[in-house]
Amino acid sequence: MKKEIIIYTISDSLGGTSRKLLAAVTAQYPDLIFDNRHRFPFVTKKEELLEILQDALKDNAVVITTLVDDGLARLAREFSQANGLAYLDLLHPFFEIIEQKTGERPIEVPGVIHRLDTEYFNKISAIEFAVKYDDGKNPQGFLDSDIVLLGVSRTSKTPLSIYLANKGYKVSNLPLIPEIPLPQILDKVDRKRLIGLICEPDKLAKVRNNRLDSLGLSHSSSYTDVNKIYEEIEYSEAVFKKYQAHVINMTDKSIEETAYLIEEHLKGLN
Amino acid sequence: MKKEIIIYTISDSLGGTSRKLLAAVTAQYPDLIFDNRHRFPFVTKKEELLEILQDALKDNAVVITTLVDDGLARLAREFSQANGLAYLDLLHPFFEIIEQKTGERPIEVPGVIHRLDTEYFNKISAIEFAVKYDDGKNPQGFLDSDIVLLGVSRTSKTPLSIYLANKGYKVSNLPLIPEIPLPQILDKVDRKRLIGLICEPDKLAKVRNNRLDSLGLSHSSSYTDVNKIYEEIEYSEAVFKKYQAHVINMTDKSIEETAYLIEEHLKGLN
């Protein structure tokens, strides 16, 4: 039977930082079960914090905190030390380093990470842009895009567009279908912004089969025929060559990894 | 003049955890400039790591590492201690707590957080779902949705749909426009899944004005007329009442905060 470990995450904001770290850490323990349902966002009162810490102690849990308030963080630290509670403060070790370096102290305002500032609104409008110009819906948008993704069906164009939009890029994408002529406006797009996505045909056939399964459709179509897919990929490679698109092979890569390669390509151009 | 602090992030994977923490920390220091352009993902060799650490020392930087490999992490720690380099290891304090609790050691495989597993593919298909059923494009999708967002123009329906899709929910949304009849299928949607978004009219007028600016359009339209917006909001509130939608006021809330309230509402129903 797998061992279980209970995690309490406590934050005076939403607690997103703890969850991100937790995802990275738990991935390193395939043989352990992490029970991370004990999430306490928006904790701002000492009494409330103390109650949660007492419950954590009863549960023999590991406590992770992202509390910007120094008083709350100190309470959690002292309680944990006094009671032998396993405890990790993600923020204050960093705050201490910054104080040593610069003499500056944190403003201790929870949740400012989600400030509704210009950067935030740019991100929102980049996401709206990606949704609007997904799937070649309005090729006019190619001219305003930072990145135009090209690829045959199931090469992750949509999730990749959204992921890059989350990083603030204006992204559009165009599915390449041999039977459908390319929009003329593609001639006018800055070649440096064109990214061609390819995938190994066998892998693509598998992904497409899964796709049909999830839609409840049968498999006997050219959509999943490996020979047909070879033709499609060849066609797409010819398009990439013609338009001098930067080609990325996304087989077995996560969206995050493919996005990283695209960002590196763009940086290399500056 | 603002003080500057140089941050080096070193990871044997993409380094997303460091960046998330860094965003939370830097938000606490509005008077400091953080130079976080020094990002070193996919570092897996000791020589490479040592070079980066030496550069960090020259730059008087703060080093943040997410290195799952114990040998690399130890090298970074020992180098930093020996040379007085400010250094923060995000993973190993957590690894140590887990070892104390369970005796288990991490598998030390970089990047497993981006495993292409079922959860990952569910997330991808939720994002595709949200893009497909954005803006009431295909109301048939309402029946398959975990969440259907309703609201007048500029109540953050699209970015909210995408954010919730990132958490694995299947989300569709419908813009409410007094002049356009509601799709009949709305009658068949489980009321518990309906979320109505409202916003203070003055705030909405401001957001819409910004929207027109960004599109390069003039402002003399009913779209930004506060009286007209009052009518729209009233209409939307009547719709929410009729369909018993759960109403959330998103004025001055970030997407993350609004999404949190929606998730809490859904949890409360289980």
TrEMBL record, chains A, B:
<comment type="function">
    <text>Bifunctional serine/threonine kinase and phosphorylase involved in the regulation of the pyruvate, phosphate dikinase (PPDK) by catalyzing its phosphorylation/dephosphorylation.</text>
</comment>
<comment type="similarity">
    <text>Belongs to the pyruvate, phosphate/water dikinase regulatory protein family. PDRP subfamily.</text>
</comment>
<dbReference type="GO" id="GO:0043531">
    <property type="term" value="F:ADP binding"/>
</dbReference>
<dbReference type="InterPro" id="IPR026565">
    <property type="entry name" value="PPDK_reg"/>
</dbReference>
<keyword id="KW-0547">Nucleotide-binding</keyword>
<dbReference type="GO" id="GO:0004674">
    <property type="term" value="F:protein serine/threonine kinase activity"/>
</dbReference>
<keyword id="KW-0723">Serine/threonine-protein kinase</keyword>
<keyword id="KW-0808">Transferase</keyword>
<protein>
    <recommendedName>
        <fullName>Putative pyruvate, phosphate dikinase regulatory protein</fullName>
        <ecNumber>2.7.11.32</ecNumber>
        <ecNumber>2.7.4.27</ecNumber>
    </recommendedName>
</protein>
<dbReference type="InterPro" id="IPR005177">
    <property type="entry name" value="Kinase-pyrophosphorylase"/>
</dbReference>
<dbReference type="GO" id="GO:0005524">
    <property type="term" value="F:ATP binding"/>
</dbReference>
<dbReference type="Pfam" id="PF03618">
    <property type="entry name" value="Kinase-PPPase"/>
</dbReference>
<keyword id="KW-0418">Kinase</keyword>
<dbReference type="GO" id="GO:0016776">
    <property type="term" value="F:phosphotransferase activity, phosphate group as acceptor"/>
</dbReference>
<feature type="binding site">
    <location>
        <begin position="151"/>
        <end position="158"/>
    </location>
    <ligand>
        <name>ADP</name>
    </ligand>
</feature>
